[in-house]
Amino acid sequence: MSTPTPLNTIFSWFEEGDMPTEYQFKQTFSSFRHLDDKIKMSDVTGLNEAFTNHQADQNAHYSVLAKLNASNLTAANVEEWKEKLKIHLTATVDGDQETGNVYTKEQIQEILNVFHIKDDEMLADIAKINAMLISNDLNLDELQKIVDYIKENRQQIELLKENGLGNSSDDKINLVGSYSNWGTVSYQNKFNDLVYDKIKKIEDAANSEKIRHEEKVRGDSRIKHDLNTLSFVIDAYDTVTMFTVPLKVKRIDTNTIDVLFDSLPPNMIQLTIKKI
Predict the structure, then answer these.
(1) Are strands 256-260 and 248-253 parallel, antiparallel or unpaired?
(2) β partners of residue 217
(3) CA atoms within 13 A on the CB side of 137
(4) Whole-model pTM over 0.70
(5) Closest CA to 227 of 210, 215, 243, 214
(6) Residue 68 and residue 61: Cα distance in Å, rounded?
(7) pLDDT, tens only, 75-84
């Protein structure tokens, strides 16, 4: 836009009796802004400076907009934001002046104290059992070995329980520690078999007349049940799936049988033989 002509000059060109020239008409219309012309910010005195100052003003629109540090939010504003963002159920911890909605350290310590008390009680009970098991009796000595094993291999036993829940066998779980006096065993399942046999010996010694025999097998096996009979019933089930397993039984003599499976069982099979 060219330099505008002052209004008093333009008025002097259009006084009564004047004959404005082409130049004067051009200068007159060029002195005003047309609707199609865009007004630049630089054409408005002080506008750039005002805009810059507004951007730097931290309190601009203080009553309707949140600050970057949220310092102007009221408690009601905070709750409204939580409602909008659906974070009412989020976990919070203790702050300087606010209590969170999860356990505090003091509360957790109280819970741990209860666990410690129960653990101490359990250890005291184990100590009493150990004292009772200190004996020259052969059967109690065998039972003491079992208790010692359980205490020393609690973590491995937990792994065994987890594998059982997951429909898996225990022939992949390694023993923790060395038990040379129990023979050359490296996997949990073989050790379990030994433990089971020792428990059965204790039970058998305690019963003057046996009427039943229990044993775990992993396939075709010869079993010495010592029931002194050819008349018995036998139950077999998978210790993982808990399904009854079909098998064939051959009587060798009054105290010995062979059990035969149609195919190799995937898991340990529990046998119960009952004299009739």
Answers:
(1) antiparallel
(2) 269
(3) 11
(4) no
(5) 210
(6) 13
(7) 888 888 888 8
- AA letter at 30: S
232: left (phi over 0), alpha (psi -120 to 50) or beta: beta
Residue type (1 letter), 180:
S
> What are the distances in angstroms from CA 187 to CA 42, 119, 154, 162, 221?
87, 29, 15, 16, 20
User: What gap in Å lies between CA 182 and CA 193, rounded to an integer?
Assistant: 11
Instruction: Check residue 175 and give its pLDDT.
Output: 60
Domain ranges of the chain: 135-190, 210-275
d(CA 248, CA 255): 17
Least confident of 2-16, 161-175, 209-223: 161-175
Per-residue DSSP letter, 16:
T
Read off the amino acid at residue 89: L
Over residues 9-55, the pLDDT tens digits come to 999 999 988 899 999 999 998 888 888 888 888 878 888 887 788 77
Report the SS3 class of residue 213: strand
**In the chain, beta strands by DSSP E:** 212-217, 221-224, 232-238, 248-253, 256-260, 269-275
**CA 213, CA 14: separation in Å to the nearest integer?**
132
Answer for the pair 188, 170: CB distance below 8 angstroms, yes or no.
Answer: yes
Question: Cα(170)–Cα(174) distance, rounded to whole angstroms?
Answer: 9
Q: What is the C-alpha to C-alpha distance for residues 113 and 102, in angstroms, rounded to an integer?
A: 18
Q: What is the dihedral of CA 186, 225, 268, 195, to 10 degrees?
A: -40
